[in-house]
């Protein structure tokens, strides 16, 4: 996956969801070969020539200005997350791939995550690799895997390739899957030179039709705070908000805490699950 192609794919995906009528343009040809806004309709609204915009989508305009990107974003109706993603993709296309630093989790962060007993927590890398987790996170997100196994899972790979297990863990698996894809798109925009990330995307495109379909839609989210209903076979529905906290070195790693609303039924259920896991871990 090259940065220039990612930029073009993102712009095409956003053109596809905008109709000429929404921008006050004449309907034109009723049956279009592809849905959405055409390049020749978008370009003048953004104040650039059709040729320039075409070259931008093709990765041949490496020095595009922030003003032009902002103008294109306004025409396409991009939200704040999508606008930031557009700028990252454009910068990556201009500078070319750079080798990403190896994934190494600081020992202090690992110990912090593993010591938490009252809320699910894990540390994840830019590719979605779980770098550390606690027992609550394991019980909610990967009960079919060994907690102390030799290799921690990649949560994106697990959600798509272990669907016989993971679909039953979420009230809305499709939304969870879409958020997973948005996470990888965001990482690819920030770390286009990460060969492991590219290999993961290629693997999932080949093995998962669900991933391939969502990938072409190019969902984008900062994934900083997401509310989701989790399903546990014994404790029922746990409504938790995932708060993603980036590590200080900002190499794509972060710690996610999954918290219920204080005093809610989910908080009561989570306490019961935590107590159960603590008792189980204390048994010889």
Automatic annotation (TrEMBL):
Classification via InterPro entries: Cro/C1-type_HTH, Lambda_DNA-bd_dom_sf, MLTR_LBD
UniProt-listed SUPFAM superfamilies: lambda repressor-like DNA-binding domains
Source species of the chain: Nonomuraea dietziae
Matching PROSITE patterns: HTH_CROC1
Protein name as catalogued: Transcriptional regulator with XRE-family HTH domain
Pfam family, one: MLTR_LBD
HTH cro/C1-type domain: residues covered: 36-83
Matches recorded under Gene3D superfamilies: 3.30.450.180, lambda repressor-like DNA-binding domains
GO molecular function: DNA binding
């Amino acid at each position: 996956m090259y940065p220039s192609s990612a930029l073009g794919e993102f712009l095409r995906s956003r053109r596809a969801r905008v109709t000429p009528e929404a921008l006050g343009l004449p309907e034109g040809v009723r049956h279009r070969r592809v849905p959405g806004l055409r390049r020749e309709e978008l370009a003048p609204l953004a104040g650039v020539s059709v040729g320039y915009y075409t070259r931008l989508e093709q990765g041949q305009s490496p020095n595009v200005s922030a003003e032009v990107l902002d103008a294109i974003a306004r025409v396409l109706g991009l939200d704040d997350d999508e606008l930031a993603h557009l700028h990252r993709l454009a910068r990556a296309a201009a500078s070319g791939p750079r080798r990403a630093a190896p994934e190494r989790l600081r020992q202090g962060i690992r110990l912090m995550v593993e010591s938490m007993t009252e809320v699910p927590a894990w540390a994840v890398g830019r590719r979605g690799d779980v770098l550390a987790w606690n027992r609550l996170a394991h019980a909610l997100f990967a009960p079919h895997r060994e907690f102390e196994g030799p290799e921690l899972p990649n949560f994106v790979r697990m959600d798509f390739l272990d669907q016989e297990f993971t679909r039953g863990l979420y009230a809305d698996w499709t939304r969870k899957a879409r958020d997973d894809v948005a996470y990888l798109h965001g990482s690819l925009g920030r770390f286009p030179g990460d060969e492991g990330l590219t290999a993961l995307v290629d693997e999932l495109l080949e093995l998962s039709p669900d991933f391939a379909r969502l990938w072409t839609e190019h969902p984008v989210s900062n994934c900083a705070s997401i509310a989701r209903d989790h399903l546990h076979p014994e404790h029922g529905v746990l409504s938790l908000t995932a708060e993603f906290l980036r590590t200080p070195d900002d190499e794509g790693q972060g710690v996610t805490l999954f918290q219920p609303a204080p005093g809610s039924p989910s908080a009561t259920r989570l306490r019961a699950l935590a107590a159960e896991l603590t008792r189980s871990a204390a048994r010889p």
